[in-house]
Amino acid sequence: MSEKKLPLPYSDLEKITETFPTPFHLYDEAAMSENARSFLDAFSWNQEFKQYFAVKATPSPFIIKLLSDIGFGADCSSLAELALSEKCGLAGDELMFSSNDTPAEEFAKARELGAIINLDDISHIDYLQECCGLPQLISFRYNPGNLREGNIIIGEPKEAKYGFTRPQIFDALKICMRRGVKRFGLHTMVASNELDADFFLETAKMMFELAVEVKKELDISVEFLNLGGGIGIPYQPEDKAVDLHDLGRRIKEMYDQFIVPAHLHPMKICMECGRVITGPYGYLVSRVLHKKETYKKYVGLDSSMADLMRPAIYEAYHHITVANKQHEESTETYDVTGSLCENNDKFAVNRKLPRIEVGDLLVIHDTGAHGHAMGFNYNGKLRSAELLLRPDGEVKQIRRAETLDDYFATLNFDDLAEFQTRTDAESAQKTQQV
Ligand SMILES: *Cc1c(COP(=O)(O)O)cnc(C)c1O
Q: Which domains, and CATH codes, for the chain?
């Protein structure tokens, strides 16, 4: 069971909306920090353990800074994420660059910052060497194919576009060694939003065995193993969170069983989790604009899937609390919708909730990762603000809401006045003249 509570009393929440109009995402800094410290503690048996926060989950400088102050690095997969992490003061081996289908300019930026480069394909060795030279330390993303089962969000490994096959890992190590690379890491990521701790234990075992085989066959002592991200969170109240300390202990047992006897100790263990770090500590706060009764009962909010895509694209469950009716019984069944002209713009379908009125304040839970970040501007919808609830109760706006000016910023209006539509005949004439 995971209790779905609000980070502050309703009256305080209502007060925040006087300064910052709904909708907005609210992040609970104290809870986020405590969770981040606890995560590091669970793996503190591994001296050099590093958790690289997957920036794509919540690409906000305040969140990246908050986590880096606690000892996290940043896991980036695009130019913007690298540049954002750089602005937060991260560099060198505090940055993991795990991208795919990567443009040369992104490799160049990663090299410039001294980030650890985690290649997605064997052909990227030549590509990287040509564009910016091979670094001293290089990592490869392993895709176990048929050897592992994936899960719904990320799919079966053998159908996934990511990573090297097993033989390619060995070939890549040999190629890079011949070209003077001395230090290596291996990475994998085979699950997303997975709540079964055994899955991650299996992943650790798979990577430990791979490192042992690499040592045996090529006499290479891999410097780090990156177990990826993908640890799930209890979106449903009846879900159970992964016990990270228990997982840490079990991975240590596995480490002692495989890594130590192979003389690979000390080996640095890395992870690049996003969701489990920030997900449960974000809340989308939104007000009821309309009620509608047709074949079903609808509650229309002042937010939309531009602010939170997961229910629409994954049919994901996000718990909803009616903040001003927390002690009322759930007697009604509603579809809770946004305003996009897309029928799947629904935060919830057939959800049991207390009787709702226009003006009620709804809180959608677990939006701290892959929430605001996934938003888009389809249908001219503008993304909401992001607020940080400080431990002392202060509320800091860490991103303002988008405005129409933001939306229009990339459009060419300058040439519009002299732009005249041509008929087909005029176009043909013009072509002949040329
Ligand atoms: C998305 C992603 C992550 C983070 O996944 P979470 O589910 O948020 O933990 C880590 N590494 C890579 C390569 C990713 O694409």
A: 1-29+277-434 (2.40.37.10), 30-276 (3.20.20.10)
Q: Identify any residues that bridge with 320 across adjacent strands, giving them in sequence order.
A: 364
Please tell me if the CB atom of residue 54 comes closer than 6 angstroms to any atom of ligand 1: yes
Closest ligand 1 atom, residue 141 Cα: 13
Q: What DSSP letter does each residue of 211-258 carry, written as one string?
A: HHHHHHHH----SEEE----B----STT-----HHHHHHHHHHHHHHH
| Residue 323 contacts residue 363 (beta carbons within 8 Å) | yes
Could you state, in chain order, the average pLDDT of each consecutive group of 10 residues for the chain (434 residues)?
92 98 98 98 98 98 98 98 98 97 97 98 98 97 85 72 96 98 96 94 97 98 98 98 98 98 98 98 98 98 98 97 98 98 97 98 98 97 98 98 97 94 71 62
The Cβ of residue 247 has, within 10 Å, a number of other Cβ atoms equal to 19
56 Cα nearest atom in ligand 1: 1
Ligand 1 pocket test: pick from 95, 96, 98 the residue with the most ligand atoms within 8 Å of its Cβ.
98
* φ, ψ of residue 128 in degrees (nearest 5): -65, -45
**Is the whole-model pTM more than 0.85?**
yes
Tell me if 189 CB under 6 Å of ligand 1: yes
d(CA 168, CA 174): 10
Nearest CA among 269, 275, 310 for reference residue 191: 275
Radius of gyration of the chain (CA): 25
